[in-house]
Amino acid sequence: MIGFGYDVHRFKEGRPLILGGVEIPHTHGLDGHSDADVLCHAIADAVLGSLGLPDIGHYFPPGDPQCLNICSLKILEKAAALCREQGYKLVNIDSTLVAEAPKVLPHREAMKENIGRALRLDPARVGIKATTNETMGFVGRREGIAAMAVAQVEPTGL
Ligand SMILES: Nc1ccn([C@@H]2O[C@H](COP(=O)(O)O)[C@@H](O)[C@H]2O)c(=O)n1
Ligand SMILES: C[C@@]1(CO)OP(=O)(O)OP(=O)(O)OC[C@H]1O
Questions:
Q1: What is the Cα–Cα distance from 62 to 21, expressed in whole angstroms?
Q2: Ligand 2 atom 1: the closest Cα is on which residue?
Q3: pLDDT confidence bin for 157, thresholds 50/70/90
Q4: Does the beta carbon of 54 lie inside 6 Å of ligand 2?
């Protein structure tokens, strides 16, 4: 079974930029109630979607004081735990970050390690790609970063 996830967060000055659990040096971070890790959020929704479960807002309600600045790797840990509880295991993840800046690919290996650890998945099975939006739209105007992800799961018995 497969699932798809999409998320977007707006840039905000004075916040750290966290992507895939890695703090990436940049002029702006992303705004959010959590750590605003747009990549982890998209991947979590892809995992939850593959199982037909509700999205991350159901498990981590927006505005919930317990979610304030939460490390989004914890959200991935929860999604992976739900997957195991349902009798499924993750096969692989693929994802794309859409950001005009900064360059994120230099941090790819560190992000893969973090995400693999949180999901209990071999980092070699965590795909992370990046593209600019060629200066078009809100991403092109450097207003924020978007992320898309797919997840594949299969029954544990296979
Ligand atoms: N935020 C980004 C965007 C892109 N990259 C890398 O640059 C390559 C070229 O991107 P274009 O949008 O100009 O085609 C892309 O394939 C990525 O390898 C990046 O690291 N960070
Ligand atoms: C995880 C949550 C918790 O507030 O994080 P946010 O930073 O609000 O991010 P968003 O992707 O807008 O919604 C998901 C929320 O459930």
A1: 19
A2: 60
A3: confident
A4: no
